[in-house]
């Protein structure tokens, strides 16, 4: 797991508090993220009987040509713990959305495989979901704001990725 805070060997560093503008931006971002996720989750569940977690798994599986991904690779891509992915895949298996297959070349590994039912579920849910994303997020932004949002998001992701690559 990535460690963003490092032990400084007893050296005290002054806290770099957020200024008023940064604090306002941070709190607005947190509120936006929470409300947007809650609304999209409620809508997805009500209209497709899929959770956001189900949708995330199915998206990853539809992004690969044969609809199969190693369990641990899927967990890494979703930033989930091994136990969470295992339990969630088990619940999705019971509903017929995915199945597990043992890896023939590696007896320890397993694949998560998209079923026909899983493909049908995401194909049915995706149009409504993307319309909600468009309506709640992108219809409120100009093309320039979308480009700025993409650059900001990528810069933060790059920082997080770099922080995870550095030794603790």
UniProtKB/TrEMBL annotation:
It comes from the Bacteria. One of its GO terms (molecular function) is DNA-binding transcription factor activity. GO terms for biological process: response to stress. PROSITE patterns: HTH_MARR_2. InterPro entries: HTH_MarR-typ (IPR000835), MarR/SlyA-like (IPR039422), WH-like_DNA-bd_sf (IPR036388), WH_DNA-bd_sf (IPR036390). Residues 22-158 form the HTH marR-type domain. Gene3D superfamilies: Winged helix-like DNA-binding domain superfamily/Winged helix DNA-binding domain. This is MarR family transcriptional regulator. It comes from Lentzea tibetensis. The lineage of its organism: Bacteria, Bacillati, Actinomycetota, Actinomycetes, Pseudonocardiales.
